[in-house]
Design brief:
This protein has helices at residues 6-32, 38-62, 65-80, 83-101. Helix 3 packs antiparallel against helix 4 (83-101). It contains 4 helices and no strands. The two termini are 38 Å apart. With 103 residues, it is mostly helical. Keywords: Membrane, Transmembrane, Transmembrane helix. This is AzlD family protein.
Length: 103
């Protein structure tokens, strides 16, 4: 069993407080504005693409060929069809690749 470390508890508490303040700070800042400036609106509109990129890019570059091919297929399917079909296409490619390649 590990010993109780009060410094670790303090560190976890401080991290929780800072995380809460950063999340609530943006909300408070936006609610105080009477009008959102165009640059802020453009930055907020870019957030979903940035988050998606940070989730997908590491998987693409670290993953194997099954992941790369599945993402490419999902991209092509996603340009034409709904997100559900995109997810299904990517999943089918990964499962087929792993089944036939014996991964």
């Amino acid at each position: 069993m590990t010993d109780f470390n009060p410094h670790m508890v303090l560190l976890i508490f401080a991290a929780a407080v800072v995380t809460y303040l950063t999340r609530i700070g943006g909300y408070i800042l936006i609610t105080k504005m009477t009008r959102i400036p165009p640059r802020v609106e453009a930055a907020l509109n870019a957030v979903p693409a940035a988050v998606l990129t940070t989730l997908v890019a590491p998987a693409f570059f670290i993953g194997g060929w099954d992941t790369k091919v599945a993402m490419a297929v999902a991209l092509v399917v996603g340009l034409r069809f709904s997100p559900t079909y995109m997810l299904i296409a990517g999943w089918v490619v990964v499962m087929a690749w792993r089944h036939f390649a014996g991964i």
